[in-house]
Each structure stands twice: as C-alpha cells, then as structure tokens.
C-alpha cells in the first residue's frame, strides 16, 4: 500500500488525463489530454497553506480550489460550448476525484 498510493496519485494526475482524452476526444487526444492535465494547476492553492505540503492532509475541503464550491464551478464549465473549457472542467473534476481517492487511502 505504501508504494501503491503515490503511483495511483501521480498516475491519476499525469497519465490518466491522456487516457480520458483518448476515450472522449479520440481525434485530438494529445492536445486535449494536455489541457486536462493542465487542470492540475488548481494545486496552486496549496501555496496559500501552511505548511505548503503536508502528506497527511486531505486536500478536499481544505484548499480553496478543492472544495464543493470549486467543484460546482468545474461542473458548470462542462456546459460552456468551448472544447478547452470542457476539457479543463473534466480535468479539474478528475483532479478532485484523484485527490479524494488519496484521502480515502490515507484513512486506511
């Protein structure tokens, strides 16, 4: 379990976006996968925390861009008729899902 958690976490953040893009947007998966992966920029809110990184802290509900209000904004992005906004919204929601899975693994 000790090695599995970081593999799932970082694989979820950096490899899965390209898999998601390949499933949803087959024809342009590389470019759209990069936009989905760019949604990891929501982690910039960690810079507002003290300490900036705490391996025992659950990001969900703690950081500004990891709360339910932010999740609602990301979900609303799916309604905007621009491919890159939808892709970013998918990426941000996926980011929250990966972080939530990480939180669940921390409690095990």
Secondary-structure blueprint:
Elements (H helix, E strand, L loop, with lengths): L3 H11 L1 H9 L4 H10 L29 H10 L5 H24 L2
Helix pairs in contact: 1-5, 2-3, 3-5, 4-5
How would you characterize this protein structure?
- There is one protein chain.
- This protein is mainly alpha-helical and 108 residues long.
- It has one domain.
- Helix content is 59%, strand content 0%.
- It has five helices and no strands.
Q: Which terms summarize this structure?
A:
108 residues; mainly alpha
Kindly summarize this structure in a few lines:
With 108 residues, the chain is an all-alpha fold.
- The run of helices and strands is HHHHH
Main sheet summary: none
Report the average pLDDT across residues: 95
Structural class of the helix and strand makeup? mainly alpha
- Strand tally is 0
Helix share bin: 55-70%
| Low-pLDDT stretches | none
How far apart, in Å, are the first and last alpha carbons? 9 Å
Gross geometry: globular
Q: Total domains, how many?
A: 1
- Amount of beta strand: under 5%
Summed up, the helix count is 5
Radius of gyration: 14 Å
